[in-house]
């Protein structure tokens, strides 16, 4: 496919003189010389301003999978080469790409494929250092083979077992690598760097704090209350529901649409038991083809209804986190519905977040009531707040507010949000800000011999359990989702190359079943764009066509997983 971008620079304008000079009369010779000089100006070099524009574009490209697939490290790659005809850096782009999902082609490969021959001698702009790992060096080798001569990197990879490796490999191949903040110091990069930080904020928080990036979201009215009865001093004390607990709806349709987007960007959504009892929520992202986050209920007492929307795991997977030993009868009923019940010795936000960290979660959205919100803030596991303010008054002394008791009795103790932004959404106002700034991991620059092959903080000898939910995490090479195709024989002995182990596993729930519907599902799974989509298709079809599922696959798969761990 011809690239959708202009031809490379160095192609002198056709106007350039073609007739040999010595054949021309003297007067026109000097004019021709001047014309030729005009026609062949010195090749343009990218300035910091150009680099900043193109790096920002790479960060924007990195964000394009948001909501379509589960949160993963976001990589964007823009390949550009200065054009003589224009100073507009956007017009220099000859190829770009972004990582769609775990186990799919990397951004660098997609950008180089689009650029084709125009990548030779060009510059590649990366929001994040390539995540090549476990012997897979696709990103680096692609840039080398494409003939890229310079790479501009927004951020070093924040995961210790990957940090610095790709940059070093590129430099070992003689490619100039300029890292913002190390080799590029101009203020012109401020905005581009912020874009690189924002698009991978979840990965940075996870790497720095070893918990998922947690966002607290609430919608509240514009109620106010007198600080003291005798004084005229009122303060905003928004309500998230009426005194009766009724809450549909505080914010408008467009604001709730924004919440669906936020859910689509999250690995999990967390509510407390009270929210389940009062709202019976579904907590789905509401878009058909997009990512379906897990729903987590935190309930110490397990005082939960036997029937609830959240127990319908056809919508989405549900986990109930509870205190060890709570209501074993209800635990069994929930497990029979397909709900995963996880017991904690002492149920608290930090331990639940550590559990989510182990499951590889990058982003979690807290849509809980005030009591749990206060507990999560006090445990310092909330990093950002999205507050939707609706122009409504509901009143009610006992009507619930967004955040419960934080133990602060002086206004000077209030938590000041940082990097606050305001946005009007129809009649509502969305205010969002960080409770903790995005961690700056840049000082940790490992030297070549310090680059460990595995994250030193997770020694396999400290524990006999290692988790590999996510391909990019320390032991991700074991994940079914890792981008390692497998070449396997089918029941007739014919071989087929499955894109990932997950594709193979999900399809084998239906292979061997003599039914056209089963064969159609197998085909659908074979063509899935990513292991995550193969998993989504397999699980959905398994629920829809339970009679077609061959149980022995499920049994052997459980055995295989445990034996492998
Ligand atoms: N009432 C209210 C919210 N309520 C939150 O949304 C949950 C309901 O989600 P779902 O069942 O998926 O529609 C509910 O349990 C509570 O966490 N959210 C908002 O953005 N705006 C609103 O006005």
UniProtKB/TrEMBL annotation:
Location in the cell: Plastid, Chloroplast
E.C. designation(s): 1.1.1.193
Top EC class for this record: oxidoreductase
Gene3D superfamilies reported for this sequence: Cytidine Deaminase, domain 2 (3.40.140.10), Dihydrofolate Reductase, subunit A (3.40.430.10), YbiA-like (1.10.357.40)
Pathway terms, separated by semicolons: Cofactor biosynthesis; riboflavin biosynthesis; 5-amino-6-(D-ribitylamino)uracil from GTP: step 3/4
Record keywords: Chloroplast, Glycosidase, Hydrolase, Multifunctional enzyme, NADP, Oxidoreductase, Plastid, Transit peptide
Broad class of the protein's primary localization: plastid
A Pfam cross-reference name: RibD_C
Listed GO biological process terms: carbohydrate derivative metabolic process; riboflavin biosynthetic process
Coiled coil: none
A single cellular component GO annotation: chloroplast
Catalytic activity: 5-amino-6-(5-phospho-D-ribosylamino)uracil + H2O = 5,6-diaminouracil + D-ribose 5-phosphate; 5-amino-6-(5-phospho-D-ribitylamino)uracil + NADP(+) = 5-amino-6-(5-phospho-D-ribosylamino)uracil + NADPH + H(+); 2,5-diamino-6-hydroxy-4-(5-phosphoribosylamino)-pyrimidine + H2O = 2,5,6-triamino-4-hydroxypyrimidine + D-ribose 5-phosphate
GO molecular function: 5-amino-6-(5-phosphoribosylamino)uracil reductase activity; diaminohydroxyphosphoribosylaminopyrimidine deaminase activity; hydrolase activity, hydrolyzing N-glycosyl compounds; NADP binding
Family: In the C-terminal section; belongs to the YbiA family.
Designated name of the protein: Riboflavin biosynthesis protein PYRR, chloroplastic
Species, as recorded: Oryza meridionalis
């Amino acid at each position: 496919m011809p690239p959708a971008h202009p031809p490379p620079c160095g192609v002198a304008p056709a106007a350039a003189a073609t007739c040999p000079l010595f054949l021309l009369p003297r007067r026109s010779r000097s004019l021709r010389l001047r014309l030729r000089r005009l026609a062949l100006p010195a090749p343009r070099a990218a300035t910091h301003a150009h680099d900043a524009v193109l790096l920002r574009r790479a960060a924007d490209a990195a964000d394009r999978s948001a909501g379509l697939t589960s949160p993963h490290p976001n990589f964007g790659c823009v390949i550009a080469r200065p054009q003589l005809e224009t100073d507009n850096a956007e017009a220099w782009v000859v190829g770009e790409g972004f990582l769609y999902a775990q186990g799919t082609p990397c951004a660098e490969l997609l950008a180089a494929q689009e650029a084709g021959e125009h990548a030779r001698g060009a510059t590649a702009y990366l929001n994040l250092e390539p995540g090549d790992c476990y012997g897979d060096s696709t990103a680096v080798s692609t840039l080398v083979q494409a003939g890229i001569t310079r790479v501009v990197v927004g951020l070093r990879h924040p995961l210790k077992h990957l940090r610095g490796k790709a940059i070093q490999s590129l430099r070992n191949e003689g490619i100039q690598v300029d890292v913002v903040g190390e080799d590029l110091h101009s203020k012109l990069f401020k905005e581009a760097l912020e874009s690189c930080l924002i698009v991978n904020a979840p990965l940075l928080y996870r790497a720095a704090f070893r918990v998922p990036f947690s966002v607290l979201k609430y919608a509240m009215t514009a109620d106010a209350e007198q600080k003291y009865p005798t004084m005229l001093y009122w303060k905003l004390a928004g309500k998230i529901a009426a005194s009766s607990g009724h809450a549909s709806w505080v914010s408008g349709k467009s604001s709730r649409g924004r919440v669906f987007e936020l859910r689509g960007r999250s690995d999990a959504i967390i509510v407390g038991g009270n929210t389940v009892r009062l709202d019976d929520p579904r907590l789905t992202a509401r878009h058909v083809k997009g990512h379906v986050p897990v729903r987590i209920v935190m309930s110490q007492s397990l005082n939960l209804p036997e029937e609830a929307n959240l127990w319908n795991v056809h919508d989405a997977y549900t986990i109930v986190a509870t205190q060890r030993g709570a209501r074993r009868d209800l635990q069994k009923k929930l497990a029979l519905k397909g709900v995963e019940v996880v017991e904690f010795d002492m149920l608290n936000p930090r331990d639940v977040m550590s559990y989510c960290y182990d499951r590889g979660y990058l982003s979690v959205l807290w849509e809980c009531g005030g009591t749990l919100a206060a507990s999560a803030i006090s445990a310092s596991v909330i990093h950002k707040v999205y507050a939707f303010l609706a122009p409504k008054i509901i009143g009610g002394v006992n009507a619930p507010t967004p955040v419960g008791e934080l133990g602060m009795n002086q206004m000077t103790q209030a938590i000041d949000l940082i990097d606050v932004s305001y946005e009007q959404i129809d009649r509502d106002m969305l205010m969002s800000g960080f409770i903790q700034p995005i961690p700056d991991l840049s000082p940790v620059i490992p030297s070549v011999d310090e680059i460990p092959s595995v994250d030193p903080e997770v020694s396999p000898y400290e524990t006999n359990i290692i988790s590999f939910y996510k391909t990019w995490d320390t032991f991700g090479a074991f994940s079914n989702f890792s981008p390692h195709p497998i070449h396997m024989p089918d029941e007739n002995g014919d071989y087929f190359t499955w894109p990932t182990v997950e594709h193979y596993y999900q399809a084998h729930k239906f292979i061997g079943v003599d039914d056209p519907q089963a064969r159609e599902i197998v085909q659908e799974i074979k063509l899935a764009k990513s292991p995550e989509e193969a998993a989504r298709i397999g699980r959905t079809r398994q629920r829809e066509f339970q009679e077609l599922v061959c149980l022995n696959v499920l049994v052997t798969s459980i055995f295989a997983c445990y034996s492998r761990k």
